[in-house]
Amino acid sequence: MIRVVLPYHLRTLAGVDGEVVLDVEGGVTQRAVIDALEARYPTLRGTIRDHATHQRRPFLRFHACEQDLSHESPDAPLPDEVAAGKEPFQVVGAIAGG
């Protein structure tokens, strides 16, 4: 069981309130979590990562266990606390401006 926290606009698009709980097959990686999230909520396809390249969208960040995981390999294992369901994997909307 993996807990995922989405920003408000993605929760609205997916039609969910609060955390999303997912079952992830195999190793718990960013790619596996996003694959499971998009499979369960097809309306999120292309919103978190690009359709063609599967790279994270520029104004979204990934966090877990007080760490920014945005620039980690999508196939790197997520922290054990995330894999155990103790800590959530967070998709955070970045803010830009000047």
Protein described:
The protein has a single domain (2-93), classed as Beta-grasp domain (Ubiquitin-like (UB roll), Roll), CATH 3.10.20.30. A 5-stranded mixed β-sheet has the order 2-1-5-3-4, with helices on one face. Helices cover 22% and strands 19% of the residues. The mean pLDDT is 94. It is built from 3 helices and 5 strands. A hairpin with a 2-residue loop joins β3 and β4. It has helices spanning 8-14, 30-40, 80-83; strands at 2-5, 20-22, 60-64, 67-68, 89-93. It has 98 residues and is an alpha+beta fold.
Q: What labels describe this entry?
A:
98 residues, alpha+beta, Ubiquitin-like (UB roll), five-stranded mixed β-sheet, 5 strands
What's this model, at a glance?
It is built from 3 helices and 5 strands. It is α+β, with helices and mostly antiparallel strands.
